Every structure is written in C-alpha cells, then in structure tokens.
Amino acid sequence: MAGNQKSKARMEQAKGKAKEAAGRAVGNERMTAEGRAAQSKGDARQAKEKGKDAFRH
C-alpha cells in the first residue's frame, strides 16, 4: 500500500509541475495556481508516507 501511495504522490507532483508550466506558457494564472496546488498535495502525501516509514523501521 505504501508504494502505491508514494507513486501517487510522485504523479501528483509531476502533473502539478506540468500544469503549472502550461499555465505559465499560455499566461493562465488559474492553471498555474492549480498546478502549484497539485504539487503541494503531492508533497503533503509524500511527507505523510515518509512519516509512516519512519515509524515502521
């Protein structure tokens, strides 16, 4: 389960970076903000999983 969540976090981060870059390219502030939000969500998920791993080992 943890591996699945970690990969989900990486995917959210990657999608967020792509969306942010696309938003900047076309000058769309909303898309840029949504990209940053997706990156933050991925960062939070990744931090949660790292915390879980710390208690497992």
TrEMBL record:
Residues 6-57 form the CsbD-like domain. Residues 1-57 are annotated as: Disordered. Residues 9-22, 42-57 have a biased composition (Basic and acidic residues). SUPFAM superfamilies: Hypothetical protein YjbJ. InterPro entries: CsbD (IPR008462), YjbJ_sf (IPR036629). It comes from the Bacteria. Pfam families: CsbD. Belongs to the UPF0337 (CsbD) family. This is CsbD family protein. It comes from Streptomyces salinarius.
